Amino acid sequence: MNPRRLLVALLTALLLSGAATYFLTRRINGRNGRSAAPATQKYVAASRPLPAGELLKPENLTLVDWPAKMPLPGAFSKMEDVSGRAVVYPMVARQPVLEGYLAAAGSGIGLTVKIPDGMRAASVRSDEVIGVAGFLFPSCHVDVLVTFRNEAISSPGTQIVLQDVEVLTVGQRIEPEPGGKAENVSVVTLLLTPADTQKLVLASTQGSIHFVLRNGADRGRIAAVPVRVGEISSEARSPAPTPAARAHVAAVHPYEVEIIKGDKRATMKFE
Fold it and tell me: Nearest CA to 175 among 201, 202, 218, 137?
């Protein structure tokens, strides 16, 4: 056998073996690299229950593991990205912090974070019993009525002045009482437009403010027609006599008495 051909064959086999080994090694290493990729990623979360309005600080934040295959839109991976911002909604422990849960940077703390741009928060005093017997809670919707007691108004009445108004706070409470426990309070804070704020303040100076609780899904509005005292009094409920009745009364003849004295007769009429 020709030694030269044998050497060429051996070199060719060696090159093919090396190439196959190289590509096989790369493929195996690629699979191992992909399998070694982290299955979770870190997200910023609350380290304890947080009420609405509280500022986020490093001591009330933590990092939690989250499946890498299920990324959270709006989540944060660094605590410094959310530190100093206030939460708008209550959060439970280890709940990831999302952008939608936070107030705009610099918007303040407490109740201010729940007031959208262009809106106002106005407080008004109401009778504890008239205030739906204590069943007013933050985030519920009400209609606001005023009973006028102004001396300039001859006939007192009640008028709807605001409809479908959101309640921000009841007393000093921003969040509902756990379990929906009723609580009688005399001051309620409402979320209003600037124009409605003026109406509320004016109404509070003209009489008594009352709240009417709405269904949570009811966003309808009605024509606000004032109700006067005369419409609910007994005189108003008594039906007025009809023209036929008045004609019948007018047609009734008076009593007649005939008086006979000797050969004289006389007739007297009595009504």
Answer: 137
